[in-house]
Amino acid sequence: MLGRAALATLLLAVALPLTGSTGSAASPSTLPPLDTTAHLRVMPLGDSITWGAGSTTGDGYRLELARYMVDVQQIYTATWVGSQTSGQQSNPHHEGHPGWTIADLSAQISTWMATYQPDVVLVHAGVNDARQYATTAVMQARMADLLSRILAASPTVRVIVGDIIPPWYGTQQDIASATVQRFNAVLPSVVAAAGPRVTLARMSAAVSSALLGDGLHPNDTGYRYMAWTWWRCMAPLLTPDGVTRAGVDPLPVPVRDSDLCPS
User: Fold this and answer.
1) Which end of the chain is more exposed for a tag (fewer CB within 10 A), N or C?
2) Contact in structure between 144 and 194 (CB atoms under 8 Å)
3) Are the CB atoms for 191 and 200 separated by under 8 Å?
4) CATH code for position 87
């Protein structure tokens, strides 16, 4: 769990796989620092994309994200937490639930937070709400409620919220895609209202709809770009000045941090 050691001294690594309250604006550096004597507990939270549907290994972005993190530092250890398992990692845990909406996740999140006590939660959810014809206003309220429950469960948890890659096939998906784009437009305000412990990751800036193998779930390349985006947005919270990056940027066109991870 989060402690009092200086954030600038935190070094992060992940074991390699085998195959709340809201508040006024503040910078991440002013938040309670992470405890370098403990495991960093990371909870991937979402739907079938978090589960890894459409990826060759079933790990989705989680496998590549683990590799990015382990390539950076070899001192601090992180672990995935959650009630679900999928993929080929030695630690395959997460809270990815195929078909679930934001409201479905909210109904269970307090229990999961109490059970697994994550230090960081990676939220990527909403496409199923859109596919079930939820309005943008409903999705906005649901996300605000989910974030409120996460923050209320832990005074120190950090949350990164990914916006949604618009789906692209069929009449239903055309409607869902339009809803997703409207939701993405208001999501920054939802994140800002949640307070300084919540930040935004612009998945839609890194992953194009062309990288959705079935029109809904990313292919392996799309998941690799998602992993990189999570890491680019997580690293400033975990490494001195956020200057250390893992691996080689896989994005075909360089994307500025300010575009992927707006403050």
Assistant:
1) C
2) yes
3) yes
4) 3.40.50.1110
